[in-house]
Amino acid sequence: MAIVLDGIVFGLQLSLLAVGLTLIYGLGGVLNLAHGQLVVVAGIAGAVTISAGAAIPVAVVLAVAAAAALAWLLDATLLRPVYRLTGERRVLLSLLVTLGVAFLLDGILITTHPFTALNLSVPGPAIDILGVRMRSGSVVASIIAVTALAAVLAFLRLSRFGRAVRSVIQDEEGAALCGVNLPLTRTVVFVLSGVMAGLFAITQGLISSVGATSGLDFTILALIVTVVGGLGRVSGALVAGLVLGIVHAVSSFYIGAFVTFVILLGVAMLTILIRPTGIFGGGAR
Amino acid sequence: MTAPVPSADGATPSAATCRHTTLRAYLPVAIAAAVLAAVPLALGGSGYLMSLATTALVFAAYAIGMNVIFGSSGQLFLCLGALAGVAGFTSVLLADDQGWPLALSVTTGVVLATAIGALFSWVAVRRNLGVIFVGIVTLAFSLVFTNLVQGLRTLTGGETGRVVDAGGAALRGPISSYYLFLGVVVGFLALYRWLEGSRTGWAWRALKDDPVAAELAGVDVARARILAGTIGAAMVGLIGALFAHHEAFISPTSYAFAHVDVRVLIVIAFGGIGSLLGPVVGAVMLGVIDEVLRPLGQLRLAVYGALLLALFLGFRRGVVPAVADVVTTWRRARTPSDAPAAGRGIRASKH
């Protein structure tokens, strides 16, 4: 039971990470291979702020803002030429460009902050949930993840802008013809995904740590969840995150970390080969 | 297309022109071979410079393989390093631990890598996977490979790697190994040229322009794609296996995604995706950059990232073709009465 709860805690975070990735892909066909680096930038920004003597809440806000700002910058500069293309060409160029960004950021961050890592510890005793003692950090992380996910879903389902986003996901040209401002929609969603990546960095900092070298790992985790949930499907990413989080926890406990990672990658590959639209895609997007 | 194939010769394989241009088509290959064969003389037998030159040849060969897979048929394989590594580790394990003769172990490694490449291509074609899915599946395979190598410590030596005994003088000597890899590169170039002029090359060009139209025009798109994945994987596997025995050491680092795939993308983007000699020019450029950047350490990653960005955003057709076009325009401007050669005429009309 304790393992499953751990899995759910991790799964909620995976969902948080993957929803951002899947939204951008669904919206414009851009698969952001630098998603994990957004997390790392947030983590390092937070860690640097804390070591400069700032209060934790200030550091948290700054960390999330850093990821959001970077996401905005990416969208406003490097991805502009990408959006000028259509179809497969856009997908291909987006892969190559974001891969370049990932390595660019990795190189800079690993060189300048090799030993910086975000570690947030929450004071307070362990809390009993369903008869299992949970670290308070895990509880806080889960609360953050659930709140953020609920807010994003509510935003997409209920607000006028959210409806615009969903219309673009369904049909880019049609939405544009109906007066949806495509560039603005993309920018907002990109920043939103940056915020989610920043929040993921915070929750990850609460449970373990975020360092300069973990960018690619985060990207891959998000990619696995996104693929299993069905590329571009928000609900799929939510469910897949939870399921894979539990799989991850159980398998790490009984089998080991190396094999677990291979299993997750295998699940993603099999998903693509057997059902490219995702296992948990369903009808709802 | 992000990068149209600058196919100078053999755009239409009509029998008459084919026979006429057969020998001329291989002229660039022969010139490249002659120039590269003179390199050891120019370097004066310095062991260090020779090893740099050999590495450049290795990357030129990887890039030719990538040109076959990606440049010709648009399949984004992000697992070149893993394919090379599969062949490398298979060959080393068989030769060193099982005592197989080198030729047999290398062949087995290459066959395995080829089979995996063919499988990816086959599945991608059968399931009609787009570039995104091919990219993700192959990237996942890269990571599976790295994790397996690191996990199977007793066999592979884990992250630190292991010493390779099987090799022989030809593969190890600085000059002889250079000529060996040069032979492979020239062989690959000739094969690439031959493929370009064949029916398969014609099918590749058709499907790169528009797969649906190609299919409707009677091109066997599935066959052309699978053939590209298979041949390219075989090339990459061969180089991966030879490289392990040449280095006398094998570790996951030399086949890592960041080490092979990213740099090969830079090489083909610089040389022009799908161009014949682009891989060679790009690999030489990469070798120079590597050497200049050596003191930077990890910051080199950032430079590779920036290069990838600059090349794919700025020179989507490749730096070499872009420069060649400028030169062509300049020459034509100087001698306007000169009728453009057939090849150049085709290229100009394509863009």
Based on the model shown, name its key terms.
heterodimer, A: 285 residues, mainly alpha, ABC transporter involved in vitamin B12 uptake, BtuC, two-stranded antiparallel sheet, two-stranded antiparallel ribbon, 4 strands, 75% helix, globular, B: 351 residues, 18 helices, disordered N terminus, disordered C terminus
Account of the protein in words:
The complex is a heterodimer of chains A (285) and B (351). With 285 residues, chain A is mainly alpha-helical. Chain A contains 12 helices and 4 strands; from the N terminus they run αααααβββααααβααα. Chain B is mostly helical and 351 residues long. Chain B has a single domain (15-350), classed as ABC transporter involved in vitamin B12 uptake, BtuC. Chain B has helices at residues 15-25, 27-37, 39-43, 47-73, 80-97, 102-126, 131-151, 153-156, 169-172, 174-197, 199-209, 211-216, 221-247, 261-271, 278-293, 299-314, 319-334, 342-350; strands at residues 162-163, 249-250. Chain B has a two-stranded antiparallel ribbon with strand order 1-2. In chain B, α2 runs antiparallel to α10, α4 (47-73) packs across α15 (278-293) and α11 crosses α13 (221-247). Chains A and B meet through α5, α10 and α12 of A and α7 and α16 of B.
CATH class term of chain A: Mainly Alpha
Structural class of chain B: mainly alpha
Which ranges of chain A are low-confidence, i.e. pLDDT below 50, for 5 or more consecutive residues?
A: none
Portion of residues in beta strands of chain A equals under 5%
Entry summary:
Helix content of chain A is 75%, strand content 4%.
Write the layout of secondary structure elements.
The complex is a heterodimer of chains A (285) and B (351).
Chain A: H1 2-28, H2 35-51, H3 56-76, H4 80-83, H5 87-112, E1 117-118, E2 127-129, E3 132-134, H6 136-158, H7 160-170, H8 172-177, H9 182-207, E4 210-211, H10 215-229, H11 234-254, H12 257-274
Antiparallel strand pairs in A: 1-4, 2-3
Helix pairs in contact in A: 1-6, 1-7, 1-9, 1-10, 1-11, 2-3, 2-5, 2-9, 2-10, 3-9, 6-7, 6-9, 7-9, 10-11, 10-12, 11-12
Chain B: H1 15-25, H2 27-37, H3 39-43, H4 47-73, H5 80-97, H6 102-126, H7 131-151, H8 153-156, E1 162-163, H9 169-172, H10 174-197, H11 199-209, H12 211-216, H13 221-247, E2 249-250, H14 261-271, H15 278-293, H16 299-314, H17 319-334, H18 342-350
Antiparallel strand pairs in B: 1-2
Helix pairs in contact in B: 2-10, 4-10, 4-13, 4-14, 4-15, 5-6, 5-7, 5-13, 6-13, 10-11, 11-13, 14-15, 14-16
